[in-house]
Each structure stands twice: as C-alpha cells, then as structure tokens.
Specification:
two-stranded antiparallel ribbon, 13 helices, 296 residues, 62% helix, mainly alpha, 4 strands, single chain
Length: 296
C-alpha cells in the first residue's frame, strides 16, 4: 500500500529496495548497541525506558522483541508495517511521566518518536560504511525516501522527518550536539552490552562467562568506537588510538569475510527468508502467475 509523505505518494520498500538490501545485513549486530545508545540518550526515550521498560531485568527478551518489531515494519513480516505501527502507537500511549530532573516526557513526543526512526536509518548507513561498502549519494537518498514511507506507516508525520538524507544528517548532528545526554538508561544499556546477563539459568556460569567476557569486550569496542565523539565524551567513555586501530582491523576482517559468505549468511535469518519469498513472488507475478500482494 502507498502512503502520502510530504505531498508525494511513497511506496513501502520491497525486495529490490536499498533498505531491504542493507537493513538486516549480519554485520549490523556490531552496531546494534550503538543504535540503542543513541536512542536512550535522548531524554524522552531514556526516561521512558527507565520508568516503563523491563530492559534492566530482561535485556535478552527486550532485544528480541525489538528485532521482531523491526522485521514487521521493514520487511512486512506478519501483518506488516501498518499493523505494527498501530501496535506501537497504542503501546506508547501510556508511557509518560516526569523524569528525575523534573522534566515531563511522553513516548509519543513527535521529535523523540521520529528520532528513534532516524537512528534506525543511521544504523543501516553506518553498518554499510564501517563493515561493508558505503552507500552512494543516490542510494542514501533512495533509502531515506523508503524509510520515510515506513515512518508514515508507523504514524510519523512527514514534517517530523527531513525531506532529504543530507538534511537528516544535519538534524542528527544537531540532536547529538544539543539534545543527547548521559543518563541512567545509557548506563544500563552499556552494562547490558558489556557484561550481559546469562540468558538461561540452565547454562553453567563458567561456560557463560567464558563466552560472555570476550564478547562483551568486542561489543564495547564496536559500540563505543562508532558513537559520535562528542557523545562518547559526554558519557565519559575512554577511547584510545589503540582502540581505533583495533576497530579498523576488525572492520577490515568483517568486510572481507562478509563479502565472501553465501547470500543466506549475509542477512539475519528471518529477513532472508522473507526476502527470498518476496523475490519468488515477484518472479511469479512477472510470469503472469497469481500471488497475493506483499504484506504492508
């Protein structure tokens, strides 16, 4: 289904879109923490997560639910972007209050809601730039047109999302500089990322920490290293030239490995299944066969 965005008819992305090509690329796992930190560093989002989310008690469950939600509105899983948009709007209606600094917040604050959407696009762009092939100017603008269409399906008004990617980057930099902060939610997220809790009580502690300790160090490297420097300083996170060299070495290694992987391993599993199904459906339609329209 199409949507009206800033006076133009926009179509949700499909199998041949820039968004589908990049959003679920497997190296994105290295930048997922960065995206989450950018979100909760916004005062409204951070307060909502701190007061209304079960992230501190169940980080794995929260991460999985977020992953499933993005698959719904980006790849049309389940009932697609429209249904997921209605669900998210209903879910966030009651998330409001007064934060620890006495500031009133509401999860449906238009700027904060749009900020979360913007960080998802930035996550995709930065993943490609760091661990793959950077998007061209044309791809960036096409991706953002597609992402604005997704935003419309999620209930974000066109006026709250810049018209071009260049303008979006300017808004990103301004928000980082003037709005984002270190808060209890950023502390909690960093703790969950670098010292993750054991996902199952049946997993022996020694075995878990044997895996979790080096994994936490790796996640800290990729998360702290890809944060905007000004935000990194605001959070009092150390970053050295040695750290930077290690990140660059890791990025080169991931790029080389990822480009050699067979296609099914270059994407998150569920996203790849959806992409393959929709490609097959498209070929059937082009041959004149009958197939139900893509969920949107």
């Amino acid at each position: 289904m199409d949507h009206e965005v800033a006076g133009e008819t926009q179509q949700l992305p499909g199998p041949e879109s820039v968004t589908w090509k990049h959003f679920a690329a497997t190296p994105g796992i290295f930048l997922a923490g960065t995206g989450l930190l950018l979100q909760v560093a916004h005062p409204v989002v951070g307060a909502g997560v701190l007061e209304h989310s079960d992230f501190r008690r169940h980080p794995w469950r929260r991460a999985w639910n977020t992953h499933v939600s993005t698959l719904r509105f980006v790849y049309g899983m389940g009932n697609g972007a429209h249904a997921e948009g209605r669900r998210l709007l209903e879910l966030h209606k009651q998330i409001k209050g007064v934060d620890r600094r006495g500031r009133r917040y509401h999860a449906l604050n238009p700027q904060a809601y749009a900020w979360v959407h913007l960080t998802l696009a930035k996550f995709m762009v930065d993943t490609a730039a760091t661990f793959g092939t950077p998007m061209t100017e044309s791809e960036l603008e096409t991706m953002w047109t597609e992402f604005r269409a997704i935003g419309a399906a999620l209930g974000i008004k066109g006026r709250h999302l810049p018209a071009t990617w260049r303008q979006t980057e300017e808004l990103f930099e301004k928000t980082v500089r003037d709005t984002l902060e270190a808060n209890q939610s950023t502390t909690d997220v960093l703790q969950a990322l670098t010292r993750p809790t054991k996902p199952s009580r049946f997993l022996p502690d020694p075995l878990w920490w044997l895996v979790a300790t080096p994994a936490g160090k790796l996640v800290r490297l990729t998360t702290v290293g890809t944060l905007p420097p000004v935000l990194r300083q605001r959070m009092n996170l150390t970053w050295t030239e040695r750290d930077q060299r290690r990140l660059e070495l890791l990025a080169r290694l991931v790029r080389e490995v990822h480009r050699r992987l067979p296609e099914p391993l270059r994407y998150a599993p569920v996203a790849y299944v959806i992409m393959r199904r929709e490609r097959k459906r498209g070929r059937t339609q082009r041959r004149g066969g009958h197939a139900s329209p893509q969920a949107a």
